[in-house]
Amino acid sequence: MDKFKILLQYLIPQHGLSLLMGKIAESKKSWIKNTFGNWFIKQYGIDMSIAERETIEEYETFNDFFTRSLKEGMRPIDEDKKSIVNPADGKVSQLGKIENGFIFQAKDHLYSAKTLLGGDAELAKPFKNGEFATIYLSPKDYHRVHMPMTGRLTKMIHVPGNLFSVNPLTAKNVPNLFARNERVVAMFETEIGPMALVLVGATIVGSIETVWHGTITPPTRDKLKVWDYPVEEEVILEKGAEMGRFKLGSTVILLFPENSIEWERNMYANAPTVMGTSLAKQN
């Protein structure tokens, strides 16, 4: 059955399916939004008591519900000046050392930081022997992504690619999964050096957005697209501030330079993450 599920990933029209689901998720017809939304809440056991709006009827579309905001104070940000906080609710897929430019995906599967960041060797250089964290957001999770630490935006890259599912089964069986899926790379300059924050698309992910740009995908481009942000533009986001969101599903990957951080002891593969809690400490 697992082999069949993986084969199906290669056979389905990934982008076509994602566009179709994106249109359905943006429908303002109440019977579509309410029926699908209530089923989704029940199916995935979503705790609506922590949401700013607690019933599906209060949302304009399914995507409005999916990217729901939380009540004030539900995700306090760790105030330790040395803390680097979890960017999202979810689960650690993998975490640890980048070995000579290669990142661990799953047993027998590595992928390169250079490819992940769109093929720019200079951009990947600071992370050659750095640290990485891969955080998987399941359908039930809060789907806004926040800053792990204060940073100044220097570059954004939209990398076209596939839209494989990014669940644990696919991560174990599809080589170079995160470096072949469509993704948005955001590069920040921080007090510990450069930090990469990568939003990875997936099957039926209708859209990836950032707070400074808005919707980046769709449309899906044929070629890599780069935006540079010079110092004078001063796009600075504080620790804990929202930086982007997924409309359906996906994964966040963080890259840090060598000897810049130390992971918290309670952060390891399969550990749950709560946005705003400490992921690591600055060295």
Q: Spell the H/E element sequence.
A: HHHHEEEEHHEEEHHEEEEEEEEEEE
Low-confidence stretches: none
Percent strand equals: 25-35%
Question: Gyration radius, to the nearest Å?
Answer: 18 Å
Given helix and strand content, the structural type is alpha+beta
Average residue pLDDT: 89
* Tally of individual helices: 8
Please count the beta strands (DSSP E, at least 2 residues each): 18
Largest sheet: 9 strands, antiparallel
Terminal CA distance: 45 Å
Shape annotation: globular
The residue fraction in helices comes out at: 10-25%
Question: How would you characterize this protein structure?
Answer:
The protein is α+β, with helices and mostly antiparallel strands and 283 residues long. It is 21% helix and 33% strand. It contains eight helices and 18 strands. The strands form four sheets. Strands 2, 5, 7, 8, 9, 12, 13, 15 and 17 form a nine-stranded antiparallel β-sheet that branches. A four-stranded antiparallel β-sheet has the order 6-14-10-11, with no helix packed on it. A hairpin with a 2-residue loop joins β8 (183-190) and β9. The longest helix is centred in the N-terminal third of the chain and has 15 residues, at 30-44. The protein starts with a helix and ends with a strand.
